[in-house]
Amino acid sequence: MRVKYFAGFGAIVLAAAISWALSTGTQAQDIQSIKIGWSISKTGPFAAGASVTTLPNYQVWVKDVNDAGGIMLKSIGKKVKIEVIEYDDRSNSEEMIKAVERLATQDKVDFILPPWSTGLNLAAAPVFDRLGYPQLAVTANSNRAVELSKRWPGLTFWLGLPSELVDGLVETLVKLRKDGKIGDKVAMASVSDQFGIEQSTAAREGLKKGGFNLVYDKSYPFGTQDMQPVLKDAMAASPDTFIAFSYPPDTLGITDTAKVLGFNPKVFFVGVGTAFPIYKGKFGDSAEGVMGIGGSNADLPGIKNYIQHHKTIIGREPDRWASPITYASLQVLQQAIERVGKIDRPAIIKEINTGSFDTIIGKVKLVDGQNKNTWAVGQWQGANFYGIAPVSKEGARAPIVPKPAWK
Amino acid sequence: MTLAFDIVLSGLILGGMYALTAMGLTLQYGVARIMNLSYGEFLVAAAFFAYWMFSSLAVSPLLGLIVILPLAFVANWAIYQIVLMPLVRRSKNRDMLEVDSILATFGLLFVIQGVMLVVFGGQYYSYSYLSIPLTLFGTTVAANRLLALVFALVIGLVVYLALKHTRTGTAIRAVAVNPVSAQLSAIDVRAAAAFAYALGGALVAAGGVLVSMFLTFNAAMGVAFTMKALIVVIMGGVGNMMGALVAGLLLGVAETAVARLVDPGLTLAVTFALFLVVLLVRPTGLFGRPTS
Amino acid sequence: MNLRNLPWFVLGAVIVMLIAGFPLIASGYHLALGISYLYFTVLATAWALFSGPTRYISLATVAFFGIGAYTVAVFGELLPWPLVLLAAGIIGVGVALVVGLSTLRLSGIYFVIFTFGLAELIRQLVTWYEVNIHGSVGRYIFVAISRNEIYWQLLALVVLVFLVGWLIGRSRLGLALRVIGEDETVARHAGIDTTKAKLTLFAISAFFMTLTGAVMAPRWTYIDPAIAFSPMLSFQVVIMALLGGAGSLIGPVLGVIPLVILFDVLSAYFPNYFSILLGIVFILIVYVLPHGVVGFLQKHWPRRSQAPAIAILRPAARRSLLAVEQLRKSFGGLVAVDDLSFTIEPGEIVGLIGPNGSGKTTVLNLISGALRPDSGEVRFKGQPIVGLNPYRVARLGVARTFQLVRVLPTMSVIENVISAIAHRERPLWGASAERTAGGLLMRVGLTDKAALHAGQLTYIDQKRLELARALALEPEVLLLDEWLAGLNPTELGEGIALIRSLQDGGLTIILVEHVMDAIRSLCGRCIVMNAGKKIADGPPATALADREVVRAYLGEADA
């Protein structure tokens, strides 16, 4: 027994020693570079989302900034390049917290870019807040966003409240019905996780208020591989509008199955993934007229440029919803740093929250920590996924309804 | 009546996919005694291969099978000989090999997944092949999914008959039932196990190619397939091809029926509940023999 | 706690105090790393509490961890923190008991898969509940608990889990579990209520896992089923515990520390190749450290063993009576025991003989409770014992040995015997158990081999050990299944003398045997079986000369 206890004690000492040795944080004397770190899901279930929406935009932005000479710091009167430190959080809250702590206390980075997903961003929020870093949580989506931004002032939200997305959808449907393009029968399916549930709960209320008749309303588990049962029952209810609050694999699966079944309602709306280039790639001309979450105004020169640019650097096009916004959020960060002129994080947080910024998606001004420059509903029209709602938003296209037949 | 028929047909098609993706595991686990946790990664790797051939070389996935199946067979045979053989040699009994193989293939899972992440990145992949409607007795089904069911039935039947009526097949069954006694019948147990493992690898590759025609996949998705396959294999009775086929079809029909008649939200819960009930009532699976 | 252990407790207390002081000087990252060490230590140690001795690989860790986290999410803002933890512990233990009762009869890979399925099922049910009843899947956790408090709570759990583990290791329960892990059949026949033992440990282990989940939850602000029930956690814990060595209390820690460091180094320095490198390391671990770090240490620094104290065996025999009535058992179409009846008087040695396949061993299995007859009754001192669990039969006073000798190979010889002493009707524990065991070993001639592993014994010594273990139950009836087979003439002589001395001590013995010399010299009476039926019953000379018996043994022509 004696040997084992010694071994145990030795191991603990060793662990402590190695833990200290792992801390290779260097002290910044003169500002040679701005250190930016991120912890992102390179492995695990979140890798798919992070590698579409988040990581490529971080990479594109860093390259863009460094190609332009860096970020201008007035306080020292010169441009400073970005130095990147990245960790893999393995889609795990605890690992992410550890990585963020490490970025802040060991690597002593100047800024930390947020992880992917609502869950990881909310887990990160108290840590960012305690360490005093701004958190531009683009991929976090919560109806309690305003309250959360108050609790943690550095935390900002960028995709719009889930309820706003649904409001945009309902608004579109109300208008279409008023114009006599659709009737009031709606079928709805949703993935049973936070996103699907919040959206469908909000939609259920909104549709009821709008006087629509919900003829089918079910949720299905994440990872469902066969959408036929859902679509057959939805189809049997012969709705004018079909709504699915789905994730990329099911978005593609639902569309594929609808096509096979010849289910072609006047409005066909699917969730996350509709705005992905893979959607257009898989369905080609059949994508025409499909509505989905998000969208962008591809006629803006900034967006046009950005799409081209992203394709050159990453090798594929960005998605047309959260990707441009992610890039825009980084532009906001850069401009805020430059306006403050030095690494003064409280001042930068204040500037992000109060300033007004020019980005590829147009003008951005946060209200209560919320970005208001968002599209709720988009539609594939030709080669692009254009924003169509909120209807009042500048650049909103008129929807193509009824949706053309599957090709 | 039409609804019932619709449910059964759609359910069989879904179940065909489950069975197809589980048959390889029943050979690998049932005969070679390798509890292969990296099974789903091999499936996804085959899907990526089919995707690559389709999008870069414009080779149809079905044609691609001609290349992929032998390749998968050889690759799995090599993995058995190089990675797993030391464990087989070292293990004194079945339980030890099971534990060791769980740990080793858990490592293998990470290696293969890591390679796919480096090559393809984490994002989703999907393409369309044979995604055309067919009408069978008044029910619309997708041609590619129907094809997966047909493959499952054909593979299940062919392998079942081969196991029953060929010399190698008899050897494999003997090893599956009792490796020690099989040795006494002058069967080279390790060769038979390696063959079964490799054959299982080829079958899972076939499954990967077929599901790639209609499922969206990414590098991190293998575990989901492994787990579904495990459930099917255990339910059907370890090492039993017919069992895997029937269990797969049963799960498919049960899930579809629940989705249509009760609530699509409960499909997965029903799968696990069904699985747990089978395990409690017949721990050796629907078609398994009692072990001791 | 005695004086011998005191220095270790003092050392332990000092280490705990040092670890407890860590947050006061640590940076955020080091504290996070410390939290990782601690929570994996609790999980891996708790896992090994159950899975180490029983060798049941459980993948249900995350099921309990997630339950704990969800308990906090639901009650966190409603109840004071200690009550939240209490609720989590109660729920975890409750689920473990329900699950354990229904599943612990599964073994091997079926248990592995079942526990995995269980974690997924709970996750699906939670999701379904949240979607349909609660109306929202994610839950926010705004409990005001600082990082340091989480760290200290985890440290408290570590101390507690080690303390509980240490106590269990010294208790009868701990021994029972190790016997189960070695050979569950032997455990049952040694008088151990295997279900109760496994269930108790499963619940204790689940208790710690649930509490860990509850303590960790406030760190994440927000949980949904995907976060709380991530199956990866279960696998990580298994790997860590096995790497360290699940067989000992300190083992899992030795796996936790290197792996936490490894995960951290890999994801920091090779974020793009994390998976590949991690996989290669896992595979190497399996090759290089098949028995974990502890196994490696023990191999290179074998532990010294103490010779047991020896005492005189107290004769363990009283009046007894066994009656077998119309016993019947068939396997498929084969009737192995066909309406067999006989009685055994107290103090007798009865030979149960017959050609191979005549059903002799099946009869022993039916008497000892290993098998349940299709019909018929077995009465022990007038009391029906058919349908009782083997451990109940053993405790009533019917002990057995096995045809193919079954010792517990990796446990020491004396522990093999103590396993029965500690679970018999009148159990002994501690020094008195060791004394009794020493006496039994002396009786069978194994005194000088008491500290060896049972697996190191020769075949004849293993048979002796099995006999000692059976005697340790203080039986009134002893069932010996070909106990004398395979002995050389000298050993046979010793064996016969030993059995006779047992009879002299008042024991009643049923002897299934092919060695006719032994039958003739020992048995006052012989029951001859053929094809499941009794064909002769009487003194050996008469019974063996019976025409039908000769025909059964030698075939028709010689009769």
Structure at a glance:
The complex is a heterotrimer of chains A (407), B (292) and C (559). Chain A is an alpha/beta fold. Chain A contains 13 helices and 16 strands.
Helix amount of chain A: 40-55%
Described by strand count, sense and barrel closure, the largest sheet of chain B is: 2 strands, antiparallel
Largest interface: A-C, 58 and 62 residues
Shape of chain B: globular
Second rung of CATH, namely the architecture of the largest domain in chain A: 3-Layer(aba) Sandwich
Mean pLDDT of chain A: 89
Number of strands of chain B: 2
Order of helices and strands of chain A: HEHEEHEHEHEHEHEHEHEHEHHHEEEEE
Shape field of chain A: globular
Number of domains of chain A: 2
Q: Radius of gyration of chain B, Cα only, in angstroms?
A: 19 Å
Query: Which percent range describes the beta-strand content of chain B?
Result: under 5%
Structural class of chain B: mainly alpha
Tell me the number of helical segments of chain B per DSSP (H or I, 4 or more residues long): 12
Give a verbal description of the structure.
- The complex is a heterotrimer of chains A (407), B (292) and C (559).
- Chain A folds into 2 domains: 33-161 and 300-365, Rossmann fold (3-Layer(aba) Sandwich); 162-295 and 376-389, Response regulator (Rossmann fold, 3-Layer(aba) Sandwich).
- In chain A, 44% of the residues lie in helices and 20% in strands.
- Chain A contains 13 helices and 16 strands.
- The termini of chain A are far apart.
- In chain B, helix 6 (143-165) runs antiparallel to helix 11.
- Chain B has one domain (2-281): ABC transporter involved in vitamin B12 uptake, BtuC (Orthogonal Bundle).
- Chain B is globular.
- The longest helix of chain B has 30 residues, at 61-90.
- In chain C, a hairpin with a 2-residue loop joins strand 3 and strand 4 (334-344).
- Chain C starts with 5 loop residues before the first helix and ends in a 5-residue tail after the last helix.
- By secondary structure, chain C is of the alpha/beta class.
- Helix content of chain C is 58%, strand content 11%.
- Chains in contact: A-B, A-C, B-C.
- At the A-C interface, helix 1, strand 3, helix 3, helix 4 and helix 7 of A face helix 1, helix 2, helix 5, strand 2 and helix 10 of C.
